[in-house]
Design a protein that fits this description.
single chain; 455 residues; 17 helices; 19 strands
């Protein structure tokens, strides 16, 4: 059967409905084609497409072109083609888009280095009065455009993300925008952590954090990701000026040791989220912090070298912890889990990530989950070769509120996993489950008796 016959057969079948007595009846939608759909329905369909796809739809016909250029579809725009964004050939075309396509409906825009010019920023400030979110990607820059004539910048920004370059100093640009960004509530500075791992090179402080904190007193969320020059003094600078701080993330800032953590907790009474994955925290500094007086609800200490003593002290003193990520820590062992349970401070816990915690036994995990598993919405116990389906089968009946479950390991195992029984148990006990991850490479036994390598 050729392609035409296949589509013809599908069209016939889709127009037919079988009644309970087995007779055929023509569907109410049999004569409905996409051309007959109202514009508002097509507009809603187009809203699920990327801008690249929307532009292709605009070439179909005049009607679709008008719908594709509806300003409602252009509220959030990425102009970074390497990350599924639109490719803009010239500054002139971008300026045309800003004035004719984006206008007052634009809320969010991502700009690559070649499009970050004072002319573009002036036009965004003048034509996009409701622009509140902006991402500026300088990560591939070898040199900046000339910003000496820049006199305007969007003034309603609440969210800004800056992807930093390894070698380009940003102060010339930043000095021009300090007066326009005092309304910022969320700031992301994305460093070059992945690149710096490839080769040992000199580290430059490409952005002046101490000046930046003075220009942004209203920050609630600060994310300093993978910035090789960020250290404890920069955390101290932000905490001294941002009294509304609720979330601080310094993931993969490996110069952070915790030297100013005590001051941070004392100053930031609203701080509920602290993310320090891959930092160089020192146990003795962490133990000096008044954790029992903090408001923390979310903590990430994954991949740090905290000692068992420090972990027991830390977890036993945070009163309202809800989300904990503490994987890849040699010091996290059975003693930590036992002391944490005995302290009673895990009664508020709803999410636990202990990925690759090799020093935790299945017996200790079983005891913990039997006591607190019913309150967990998310649980990650992946990366532990000694944890098999037997533990999961024994605790799944307790994980009745789990929405996220992550299990398995990337290491090839010699044990057999009875996947059908495991899936049946998950289906029977975890009615609220929304996401299941099997990070596994092992010999899996199915109900049919067949074997295959899971991955």
């Amino acid at each position: 059967m050729d392609g035409v016959d296949i589509w013809g057969q599908l069209a016939v079948e889709s127009s037919q409905v079988y009644l309970t007595d087995g007779t055929l009846k023509k569907s109410l939608f049999a004569d409905t084609t996409i051309e007959k759909l109202p514009d508002k329905v097509l507009l809603n369909i187009f809203s699920y497409l990327s801008h690249r796809e929307i532009c292709r739809m605009a070439t179909i016909c005049r009607r679709w072109r008008l719908i594709a250029y509806n300003s409602q579809l252009w509220r959030n725009v990425s102009l970074r083609p390497e990350i599924s964004g639109l490719h803009v050939n010239s500054l002139e075309f971008l300026l045309h888009l800003v004035s004719t396509r984006f206008g007052n409906t634009l809320r969010y825009i991502e700009l690559p280095i070649e499009l970050i010019t004072h002319t573009v920023l002036h036009e965004l400030a003048a034509k996009c009065a409701n622009l509140t979110h902006m991402l500026l990607d300088f990560s591939t820059a070898m040199q900046l455009h000339d910003f000496s004539e820049m006199q305007a910048f969007p003034t309603k920004l609440r969210y800004m993300c800056i992807c930093l370059s390894e070698v380009i100093f940003m102060e010339g640009f930043m000095r021009k925008i300090y007066n326009f960004i005092n309304g910022l509530e969320v700031l992301h500075l994305i460093g070059t952590y992945e690149k710096s791992e490839e080769a040992e090179e000199e580290i430059y402080e490409v952005i002046n954090v101490h000046k930046l904190k003075s220009a942004t007193p209203n920050l609630r969320v600060i994310n300093l990701y993978g910035i090789t020059f960020v250290e404890d003094s920069h955390i101290d600078a932000f905490s001294s000026n941002c009294i509304q701080l609720e979330c601080l993330a310094v993931n993969f800032c490996n110069k952070v040791t915790g030297a100013t953590m005590k001051t941070l907790i004392q100053r930031s009474k609203r701080l509920t989220c602290l993310l320090m994955n891959g930092t160089s925290l020192k146990s003795e500094l962490v133990m000096e912090v008044d954790w029992d007086k903090c408001a923390l609800q979310e903590l990430d200490i994954t991949g740090t070298d905290l000692s068992t003593e420090c972990l027991i002290d830390l977890l036993s003193r945070i009163p309202g912890l809800k989300f904990l990520s503490a994987g890849q820590i040699n010091g996290f062992n059975d003693s930590v889990l036992k002391a944490w349970m005995e302290s009673g401070t895990c009664r508020s816990l709803i999410s636990l990530d202990l990925d690759s915690s090799d020093n935790l036994s299945d017996e200790a995990l079983s005891k913990f989950l039997h006591r607190h598993g019913h309150q967990l919405s998310a649980i990650c116990l992946s990366g532990m070769p000694h944890i098999t389906d037997q533990l999961w089968m024994s605790v799944l009946s307790i994980l009745t509120n789990a929405k996220i479950i992550v299990m398995g390991t990337s290491e090839k195992l010699g044990v057999n996993i009875h996947v059908d029984q495991l899936m049946d148990s998950i289906a029977s006990n975890c009615a609220a489950l929304e996401r299941l991850e099997l990070r596994s490479r092992f010999l899996i036994h199915s109900r049919s008796g067949s074997e295959y390598n899971g991955s």
